[in-house]
Write a structure and sequence with these properties.
- With 213 residues, the chain is an alpha/beta fold.
- The protein has a single domain, classed as Spore Coat Polysaccharide Biosynthesis Protein SpsA, Chain A (Alpha-Beta Complex).
- It is 37% helix and 17% strand.
- It is built from 7 helices and 7 strands; from the N terminus they run βαβαβαβαββαβαα.
- Strands 3-2-1-4-6-5-7 form a 7-stranded mixed β-sheet, with helices on both faces.
- Strand 2, helix 2 and strand 3 form a beta-alpha-beta unit.
- The protein starts with a strand and ends in a 6-residue tail after the last helix.
- It binds guanosine-5'-triphosphate (GTP) and L-phospholactate (PEQ).
- Guanosine-5'-triphosphate binds next to strand 2 and helix 3.
- Its EC number is 2.7.7.68.
Length: 213
């Protein structure tokens, strides 16, 4: 079974690196639109058997319910991505063979790319999809779910590869244009402006005239 989970911290604490450009209202709206785009895409991919969200945020739960997504209720104080994932992994049934871990801030995510990814993870224990900029991991696939502990944070791309290597596991790095843009900074938003045709996120930014900043 292929399970995809999406991580969403409380929206009023999300996207703080955009504080200088966007108001709290705009940052919540941005997080809301990106989550919609990610869940909308994932729930259309036929080779993903189930989609879940890990969150304590009421707004995120309401969006997830529109897509019939399973809700993993996290405690109110979000303790970070790694703890949120650990909590999910501990509760999963044994028939989950591949756990696809997604952030909620990759609105360019596409059905075709996820379909490709699902085909390609079969021969690997750990699949790392890096972010375009810097040294991070955008998407991580663990086969099976607890095969390594996750290490989201500083240099997570290298950390995930190192953890797999140390455990003697097969791992690979998959470069994907649609999965590599996570929205953290104003430059990311500007890129989204040119590439995000058809996404709810681009619509939200345009309706709120956010590109005028
Ligand atoms: N469930 C859950 N998700 C988290 C947690 N921390 C981060 N995330 C999610 O993980 C993804 C990547 O996080 P970041 O890129 O740091 O995004 P962010 O925290 O909204 O942005 P900054 O405030 O600018 O760091 C986003 O979808 C976050 O909502 C957490 O403690 N719990
Ligand atoms: C989640 C983190 O990246 P960020 O989006 O916070 O730069 C990471 O890649 O481990």
């Amino acid at each position: 079974m292929n399970l995809a989970i999406v991580l969403q911290k409380p929206m009023n604490k999300a996207k703080t690196r955009l504080k200088n450009w966007l108001s709290l209202y705009e940052r919540i709206g941005l997080a809301d639109s990106m989550l919609y785009d990610v869940l909308n895409t994932l729930s259309k991919v036929s080779s993903i058997d189930a989609v879940g969200i890990v969150t304590s945020d009421a707004r995120a739960i309401a969006i997830a319910k529109q897509f019939g997504v399973h809700i993993f209720h996290e405690g109110e104080d979000a303790l970070g991505m790694n703890q949120a994932i650990q909590f999910v992994v501990e509760t999963l049934p044994r028939d989950v063979q591949h756990l696809f871990i997604f952030p909620a801030d990759i609105p360019l995510i596409s059905c075709d790319e996820i379909t490709n990814l699902v085909k390609m993870v079969k021969n690997h224990s750990v699949s790392v999809i890096p972010c375009k900029k810097g040294t991070g991991t955008n998407v991580l696939v663990l086969s099976p779910p607890g095969v390594i502990q996750t290490a989201f944070g500083l240099n997570s791309r290298e950390e995930h590869c190192l953890l797999a290597k140390k455990a003697g596991l097969h791992y690979w790095v998959f470069h994907s244009s649609s999965l590599s843009l996570d929205i953290d900074t104003i430059d990311d938003l500007l890129l989204l402006k040119t590439m995000g045709q058809g996404t709810k996120t681009k619509d939200f930014l345009e309706r709120n005239q956010i590109f005028k900043c």
